[in-house]
Amino acid sequence: MPERRADEGRAGAWWRDGPPGPFRPGFWRSPLRGPWLTSVLGLALLAGLVIVAVTGLLSYAAYNPRLPGNDMTPGKGLLGFYLFDWPTRPVWLYRVTQGAHVVVGLTLVPVLLAKLWSVIPKLFVWPPARSIAEGIERASLVLLVGGAGFQFATGILNIQLFYVFPFSFYPAHLYGAWIFLAALAVHVAVRLPRAIRALRSRDLRRELRTGLDGTRPEPRDPDGLVAADPAPPTMSRRGLLAFVGGGSAMMFGLSAGQTLDGPLRRTALLAPHGRVYGTGPNDFQVNKTAASLGVGAADTGAQWRLVLAGAGLRLSREDLLRMPLHTYALPIACVEGWSTEQVWTGVRLADLARLAGAAPGSVMVTVRSLQRVGYFGQASLSAGQVADPRSLLALRVNGADLSLDHGFPARIIVPNAPGVHNTKWVRELDFRPERP
């Protein structure tokens, strides 16, 4: 009987005090944790996440998912309420929005990790919930932390061209974004008043002037962020914020060059490719080579013809070169965040629409490629994109014929379109009326 009562006593203490390790308050002893530090990191993270969220949703709109073949997430339902016709002007808009999405996302990684470190005791609170309201809040916290981890992990692996997950990136990233944003909205609504009070409790400039000798724990707080038995400080809050800020500055410096182009491209060590160009007219980024997508020289030789579907026309490359050619300096930007501006020469899509018996401004076009494997073997362009005089079926770049990896014998270049909609190795253009 005494042994049984002892076992029951130990079980009761286990339930009352929590399992050994991180579930017990004494496990967390950093003297830096507290509401003020968490609020500072949270404010910086929130500002960056707004940029990432808005630019991410704009990126999805840029795909014109209402057009045939463009919707990578057909089950989105109400999540597509905000979609609009993606414009062709200004030509740099997608370059800026997607570049900001990727670069700001990478820059936030140190801030996100620091924020998670600052609140990690809350993830191990015992018991998990003392009331229904607390249970809802903690469930939103699980979705918030899990959603942030999922979005950052899938996004970073995708831009590194090392996507290893057994599901499609596009719907997973979109649905994950909405789940994360819903959890973030609940978290902000619940925590914002406390965060504002915490930010007002200490002076930022004074904290940034306080070294290690003057570092003291924050006053005890009801949320349990402040350690019950803090250890002596080994770093000041100023040092921690400098460490996080320095990490973010490093991430920015190692990624921004892929969007800014020019000399800074050499600094983009986090870019998956294309940091250093050669001197030839075709020496710029290639995401997928012709060989990797099943396109060979036999497909693009003298026998190649461009088919204008519905018009009974088959045009050789020589036929296209005899048509009026136009040259424009246009950027090409990819979902991975890289972009570059090159000088393209080709036939206007509007002229090809007229040749097919269609009126530019009223018809969209579905572009089909020679590629045999992979995504985006076809893409649809809106009537506005077809009608823009700078939208080209490009035959040359920087004064030279396209290389095979850049889409020879002909590729699409449309101002402000995502890179995957600038279809390479075009074999067919299908103009048809655009339905609202």
Automatic annotation (TrEMBL):
<dbReference type="InterPro" id="IPR000572">
    <property type="entry name" value="OxRdtase_Mopterin-bd_dom"/>
</dbReference>
<keyword id="KW-1133">Transmembrane helix</keyword>
<dbReference type="GO" id="GO:0016491">
    <property type="term" value="F:oxidoreductase activity"/>
</dbReference>
<dbReference type="InterPro" id="IPR036374">
    <property type="entry name" value="OxRdtase_Mopterin-bd_sf"/>
</dbReference>
<feature type="domain" description="Oxidoreductase molybdopterin-binding">
    <location>
        <begin position="302"/>
        <end position="434"/>
    </location>
</feature>
<feature type="transmembrane region" description="Helical">
    <location>
        <begin position="141"/>
        <end position="163"/>
    </location>
</feature>
<keyword id="KW-0472">Membrane</keyword>
<feature type="transmembrane region" description="Helical">
    <location>
        <begin position="36"/>
        <end position="63"/>
    </location>
</feature>
<feature type="transmembrane region" description="Helical">
    <location>
        <begin position="99"/>
        <end position="120"/>
    </location>
</feature>
<feature type="transmembrane region" description="Helical">
    <location>
        <begin position="240"/>
        <end position="260"/>
    </location>
</feature>
<dbReference type="InterPro" id="IPR008335">
    <property type="entry name" value="Mopterin_OxRdtase_euk"/>
</dbReference>
<protein>
    <recommendedName>
        <fullName>Oxidoreductase molybdopterin-binding domain-containing protein</fullName>
    </recommendedName>
</protein>
<dbReference type="Pfam" id="PF00174">
    <property type="entry name" value="Oxidored_molyb"/>
</dbReference>
<feature type="transmembrane region" description="Helical">
    <location>
        <begin position="175"/>
        <end position="192"/>
    </location>
</feature>
<feature type="region of interest" description="Disordered">
    <location>
        <begin position="210"/>
        <end position="229"/>
    </location>
</feature>
<feature type="compositionally biased region" description="Basic and acidic residues">
    <location>
        <begin position="210"/>
        <end position="223"/>
    </location>
</feature>
<keyword id="KW-0812">Transmembrane</keyword>
